[in-house]
């Protein structure tokens, strides 16, 4: 809403009136078609046209709500116009610039206030004197009752707010828990898919692992994908024989020492083998370490 034209000392030019509220422009914003409206009026206009095409209130051209701009020069001009105090009807004779009106009203002695004790209306300056004399306003018991009522109202509002907050926190925790479960399920499905793809594309039950350097890395990669749970289609005894073959053939080859070490360490970290087999794997690793030091 704009400024009431009646507060201005001189008649206001019609070009300074908002096309929506018909009052003097307040925080004017211009549209690309050239028409200007109060900022608040324009916001309300666009809100009312939420589900329909937005148009200029005057020329009805299609517009975009974000394509409006503040008219700073016009704002400065309007705020520089002379106005009467809004309390002129109560006796205030002050004439000042529109831009200074708000600060003046904060301390204007002619502003009307209601006594919370006797509920009579006074000007601000008269109320300062009345406040000292009003029996009901100075009645401690009456004051305490009002304060108590306010405290109870605030406590009730605080209780409702806390209850609403607890409900919101519970909702957030539930949603976070659901989100976590969904992410875990998605990860499990993804890992299962990758494992299946790996099995189909990499694992070959007829391949003789250990007869070539390439098979060392191949076997190490496969075991690392299923450290905790050996796939049921894999024979661990056959895998152990392949590990022994890799160790026997390549542990003395400097070029493949690291690959063999990685394979045996991965196998030992898995849960695939019996205790005696794990002891053998550990001994092989110690042998590799000693040979590495000697070289």
Automatic annotation (TrEMBL):
One of its GO terms (molecular function) is zinc ion binding. Residues 18-60 form the RING-type domain. Keywords: Metal-binding, Zinc, Zinc-finger. The keyword Metal-binding applies. The keyword Zinc-finger applies. InterPro entries: Znf-RING_euk (IPR027370), Znf_RING (IPR001841), Znf_RING/FYVE/PHD (IPR013083), Znf_RING_CS (IPR017907). This is RING-type domain-containing protein.
């Amino acid at each position: 809403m704009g400024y009431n034209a009646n507060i201005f000392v001189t008649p206001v030019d019609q070009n300074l009136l908002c096309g929506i509220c018909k009052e003097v422009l307040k925080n004017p914003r211009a549209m690309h078609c050239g028409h200007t409206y109060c900022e608040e009026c324009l916001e309300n206009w666009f809100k009312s046209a939420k589900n329909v095409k937005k148009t200029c209130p005057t020329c009805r051209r299609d517009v975009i709500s974000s394509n409006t701009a503040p008219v700073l020069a016009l704002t400065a001009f309007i705020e520089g116009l002379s106005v009467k105090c809004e309390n002129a009807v109560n006796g205030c004779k002050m004439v000042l610039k529109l831009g200074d009106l708000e600060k003046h009203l904060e301390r204007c002695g002619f502003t009307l206030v209601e006594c919370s004790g006797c509920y009579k209306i006074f000007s601000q300056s008269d109320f300062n004197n009345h406040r000292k004399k009003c029996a009901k306003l100075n009645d401690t018991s009456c004051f305490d009752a009002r304060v108590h009522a306010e405290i109870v109202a605030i406590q009730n509002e605080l209780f409702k707010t806390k209850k609403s907050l607890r409900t919101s926190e519970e909702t957030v925790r539930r949603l976070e828990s659901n989100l976590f479960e969904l992410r875990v399920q998605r990860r499990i499905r993804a890992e299962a898919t990758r494992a299946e793809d790996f099995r189909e594309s990499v694992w070959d039950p007829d391949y003789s692992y250990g007869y070539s350097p390439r098979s060392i890395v191949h076997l190490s990669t496969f075991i690392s994908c299923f450290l905790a749970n050996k796939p049921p289609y894999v024979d661990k005894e056959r895998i152990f024989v392949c590990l022994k073959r890799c160790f026997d053939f390549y542990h003395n080859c400097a070029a493949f020492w690291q690959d063999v070490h990685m394979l045996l360490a991965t196998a030992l970290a898995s849960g695939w083998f019996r205790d005696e087999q794990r002891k053998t794997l550990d001994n092989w690793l110690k042998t590799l370490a000693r040979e590495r030091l000697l070289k």
